[in-house]
TrEMBL record:
An annotated GO cellular component: Golgi membrane
PANTHER family found in the cross-reference section: BETA-1,3-N-ACETYLGLUCOSAMINYLTRANSFERASE (PTHR11214), HEXOSYLTRANSFERASE (PTHR11214:SF364)
GO process terms (BP): protein O-linked glycosylation
Keyword annotations from UniProtKB, A to Z: Glycoprotein, Glycosyltransferase, Golgi apparatus, Membrane, Signal-anchor, Transferase, Transmembrane, Transmembrane helix
InterPro entries the record matches: Glyco_trans_31
Protein name as annotated: Hexosyltransferase
E.C. number(s) listed in UniProt: 2.4.1.-
Residue stretches of biased makeup (Polar residues): 68-81
Topology of the protein relative to the lipid bilayer: Single-pass type II membrane protein
Recorded family membership: Belongs to the glycosyltransferase 31 family.
Length: 374
């Protein structure tokens, strides 16, 4: 959801050039979440909002059968005094209903699950992805691609979406209104679906329907880091922003009031265009989201607030992003094409052209069919 038009270009340049100078790693006070038990309680709450009486003492903390309690201060650790307990509903419950859900889950052999933020209206973008980088038949490693969205406004579009889902089996739709300020719900919906349906996959990629992915390069990279301990678990791999300024200009589309977010700089977070998790963290992220207040800046919320709260570190992946539109073809088809993975572009003809070149280079033939991958 980052400002991606020409503004993002400027921002990216800005960040790249001044990167060294600005490189201020904000030391966030994220502490690893050790109170799994509280989270479980919150989850039970999400399932069953009937609240029983709170327990009185520490001992009862262990007993969470059907009850939901959360500590006022869950990051307080083990102080001398036990935390006072209160009856707190999840700060950010996610109890939207599925309007559309694929019939098939991921099977255990899936290496990478991809959830693509989309919108009911953007049928053409989904078709293009299915015909190019999102077609699982191109790859040795098994991938599963799903499109995630809220509800649109037109019944006609909804009807064709049902048909699309019948045909491809790759649509996940929840019943929140699909709008700019609701993108955080979409992000959480993605985490939820993956943790419930694809928990055994090795890696999870989130991307948008206007992002091109050189999946061959990505799979090679993931395959190679999956051989190493450091790349296997607790991984958050992305173009990481450090100390990104919070925009206080009231005329900006990305204006954020002090009341919404107090600090003037964001703690580290990822470009929302594409980010990768080892799938072990996805469930933790969904669960912790229930305890963190909704904030509409989805890329910060998902890859900043949740990630930092879980005590995970971002691994910088900036070199594989080519987000400057005019450079897309040049970067992906040039001699160093192997170095790039993600690009932001709306130009379907260029995407097809670049894809054709990639396909022939990889020694594959163009396949335009797209069948269910599991
Ligand atoms: C847990 O709470 C339930 C309901 O209050 C009670 O029936 C049960 O005995 C408790 N279990 C333990 C281990 O305290
Ligand atoms: C929560 O705990 C932290 C660390 O112990 C402490 O600094 C902070 O003041 C506490 N916040 C509240 C609301 O109690
Ligand atoms: C976000 O979704 C909720 C649930 O559908 C809806 O009530 C709310 O109006 C939406 N907000 C915006 C800004 O669209
Ligand atoms: C994150 O980095 C810090 C500092 O390098 C390290 O102490 C910590 O263990 C790391 N956390 C994870 C989950 O890797
Ligand atoms: C990719 O784009 C960058 C930024 O515009 C440019 O400087 C670079 O030369 C390009 N690389 C290749 C291999 O085309």
């Amino acid at each position: 959801m980052l400002p991606r038009k020409s503004t993002i270009t400027k921002w990216l340049m800005f960040v790249l050039i001044l990167g060294g100078m600005l490189y201020t790693v904000i030391n966030n006070n994220a502490s690893p979440v050790n109170k799994e038990i509280e989270i479980r309680k919150l989850l039970e709450y999400a399932k069953d909002p009937i609240i029983n009486k709170p327990p009185k003492g520490e001992k009862d903390l262990e007993n969470h059968s059907g009850k939901v309690y959360s500590s006022i201060n869950s990051s307080a650790g083990h102080e001398n005094q036990p935390n006072p307990l209160t009856l707190t509903p999840p700060v950010n419950p996610h109890n939207f209903k599925y309007m559309i859900k694929p019939k098939y889950q991921c099977d255990d052999s899936v290496f990478l699950v991809v959830y693509v933020h989309s919108h009911p209206d953007y049928y053409k973008r989904r078709i293009l992805i299915r015909q190019t980088w999102g077609n699982p038949k191109n790859y040795k490693e098994k991938i599963r691609v799903i499109f995630i969205m809220g509800k649109g406004l037109k019944q006609k579009v909804q009807d064709s979406l049902m048909f699309e889902s019948e045909t491809y089996g790759d649509i996940v739709q929840e019943d929140f209104i699909d709008s700019y300020k609701n993108l955080t719900y979409k992000g959480i919906a993605g985490l939820k679906w993956v943790s419930e349906n694809c928990a055994h996959t090795k890696y999870t990629l989130k991307t948008d329907d206007d992002i091109f992915v050189n999946m061959f390069n990505l799979l090679r990279h993931l395959k190679s880091i999956s051989m190493h301990d450091l790349g296997r678990t607790k991984l958050v791999l992305c173009l990481t922003w450090h100390a990104m300024k919070v925009l206080r200009d009231k005329n900006s589309k990305w204006y954020i009031a002090k009341e919404e977010f107090e600090p003037d700089h964001f703690p580290p977070y990822c470009s929302g265009s594409a980010f990768i998790f080892s799938t072990d963290v996805v469930k933790d992220m969904f669960e912790i989201s229930l305890t963190i207040k909704f904030f509409w800046v989805d890329d910060y919320y998902i890859t900043g607030a949740l990630v930092n709260k879980l005590g995970l570190n971002h691994t910088q992946f900036i070199s594989v992003y080519s987000l400057q539109k005019p450079k897309f073809e040049e970067n992906f088809s040039g001699p160093k094409g192997d170095l790039y993975i993600f690009a932001h572009t709306h130009e379907a003809d260029k995407i097809r052209k670049v894809w054709k070149r990639i396909i022939s280079k990889e020694g594959k033939s163009m396949k335009s069919d797209y069948l269910l991958s599991s």
